[in-house]
Each structure stands twice: as structure tokens, then as C-alpha cells.
Amino acid sequence: MERNSDNCNEAENGYRILFEESPESMLVIDTAGSIARFNEAAHRQLGYSRDEFARLGIRDIDPFETDEGIGAKARKVLHEGTAEFDVKQRTKSGDLRDVHVITRVIPFGGRNVFYSIWRDVTQFNSSLQALRTALQRAEEAKARAETIVESLGEAISIQGPDFRVLYQNRMSRDKVGAHIGEYCYSAYERRDRICEGCPVVASFTDANPHTVVRSTRTGRGVSFFEITASVLRDTEGRIIAGIEVARDITARKGAESELCRRIDKLGHAPSELVSAIREVYESGRNLGLPLAKPFAGEGEKDIMIPLHELLSARELQVLRMIASGKAGRTIADELSLSVKTVATFRSRILKKMRLANNAQLAQYAIRNGLVD
Hints:
The protein is of the alpha+beta class. It has 15 helices and 10 strands.
């Protein structure tokens, strides 16, 4: 008998230690809502002393719960035997915290009571809300990015490491059709293996952007596309996909071809044009054949070009002011220029007109009626 009694006392002491030392708030509450027993964590986590907490009821801790609500929960637990729910609790200092309650009915002292464990989930709920907010913002950012990419006038597609198409924007789908899940070389080039010179392969190899120009025959003829590939990385910097941006440069190619055709057609005209311009600049007499003929009119008259007509409008303006006797500072102030800029204009004028100084410049201007 004594041994059994000792075992019972030992077990009771063990349970008491587990109850008191638990980091979770543990309470025994009667069916009327009064707290019969509680451990250290219960009053400490709410900021009360043991004596203060012993005088409290559930309504003192849960400011949002009514007597009717407490009664309804008690009846529900008594009926079902166990329950879990979330409540708001107020600490002694007035702060609110989120608490998850696990309670069940147990016999205690010859009557049924509620054995409850209160777990503070304030930090967990705060982190969860922050995560939800971050996810919502990420979804909104994703939606905005997709809207922008969808509206771009360039064909954009994303290929995975196995070269399957993961994404196409509207322009890509319009140009080559929808091919999500297909191999890019099969969908775009009708090949059974990766294309030679593929820019995505090059980007996967060295992680740098690569550009190629490809041509394809359509119902409207041959079209040219400039394709630029680059890599996409995850948050840890690993390459997870390749992105291709295809620009239709058919019009540009056509313009380049036309330019080359015209240059070839000109033949030797550029050298003749340079010679004629040099002759005009050096002698002021005539353009010479064959470039003189379009300007000669009916006869074989020489065409004389006054030297001041080689000047720009601003240079001619500066020439007239110098010829009128105005100093460089005065000219600079009237034209809102720096003195250095005026000096540069003067040097150009003298060089173009093959004059040595301001005196010769003034004589020329008077002789040609450029000044009074």
C-alpha cells in the first residue's frame, strides 16, 4: 500500500512539474468561466502576478467575448468534448495579442472542467499577414509586368533549360502562333534539333546577351528578324531560363539594300563631285564637265560663285559686323556669343575666303555690297 501511495505521489509530482514548467499557458477552467488552476506561463505571458491572475475571469482577459459567447463555447465543448479556436487577449499593460486555444473536457475534483492550452500566435499571424501582403504585391507586380510585356511591339518568348517554350507574349503568338510546352527549335524553325548558332545556347554558356539575325519566308516574302537572347536567374543567381526578344528588321534591311543599290549606281560620281567642289573653292570659276552641264543653261558660260556664298548664315552675319568695324567683344554681346566663338567664326571666314586680315575682309564686303 505504501509503495502504491509513493508511486501515486511520484506521478502526481511529475504531472505537477510538467504543468507548472510548460512554456505554454495551461489552465483549468470551470464551466462557468472561472479559472480554477493555471501555470506560471499563463500569468507571466499576460504580465500579471500569480495573485492578480487568480482574481481574473475569462471576460477580464478576453475583452471581445460576451457572457453569451462564453456560454455558447462552453456548451459546444461540453457537447463535442474538444475544440480549437482563436481569440484576442489583453495583457495587463493593455496590449492585444492573438491566441490559439486548444481545450477539452476532463474530470477534475469530481466534476467536469475545461483543460485549456493557450498559445500566443501574435508573431506568427503578423508574419503570415506580411507574407500575404508580399504575395499580393508580387501578384500585382507580376500582373503589371505581364501587361507591359503583352503590349510590347516586339515578340518575346522564354525558353527553359530544355529549350521548351515557357512563355510567349501577344506579338510572339501573332507572329509564329502559340507553342507553349513545345521545343523552340521545332516550333519556330521546324527542326528536330537545336539550331546552329542559337543565341540562347550561347547565353546559357557564358550568361551574356547574344544577338543574331535570321530570315524566314512568309506569304509576303522574306522577313528578317534580329533576335537577342539573355538569361533569367532565380533569387540565388542560378540560370533558370533564357529570354528571346525578336525585332522585325525587314524594313531596315530593305532600306540598307536600297542604299547599297544607289551607291553602286552612282559609280564615279562622288569623285567627280569632290573634284568640282574643290575647283569652285580654289578658283571660283566653273564646275567643269560633266557636272557643269546641268547648271550651264543654254551656252557654255562660266558660272562664277562669290566667295561669301560659301559662308553659313551666321558666318556671313559676323563678316558684315567685322567689316562694319565692330570689335569682337561688341559682336559677342550683340549675338549672345562668347568672344572665343566670335574669333572661331572670324578664322573660318578668312580661311574660306582666302583673306589675310580684317582690312581685306572689309574691302571685299564693300566691293560686293555687303556693307554700306
